[in-house]
Amino acid sequence: MSGTVLHRKSGLVFISGQTAADEDGITAQTERVLQKVDERLAAAGTDKSHILQAQIWLKDIERDFKAMNGVWVQWVDQDNKPARATTEAPMANGKILVEIMVVASAKETP
Predict the structure, then answer these.
(1) What is the pLDDT of residue 110?
(2) What is the number of structural domains in the chain?
(3) Which one, out of 15, 33, 49, 66, has a CA that is 20 to 30 A from the CA of 39?
């Protein structure tokens, strides 16, 4: 599995699902996951203002959606909000509360 894929022909950057099982609580996990997304986007030569789509999975959507969404709203580029889907899903590791995957465009087209 690749953590980041840059499709040079289309100029799209695919960031695999990021998690943070080493953090306690949905707020801390969401903050760490978004930090990891920022780091992967930067390594691919782009940033969150170029995110086109985000997929978010929550272990317990009823309990954690509001807190996760609060962190997301503070983090997302307010002038370039991506399309987003959020759903509940069982996680591969019981400590994981949130997983986020994004697709972004490169800053410069190939």
Answers:
(1) 47
(2) 1
(3) 66
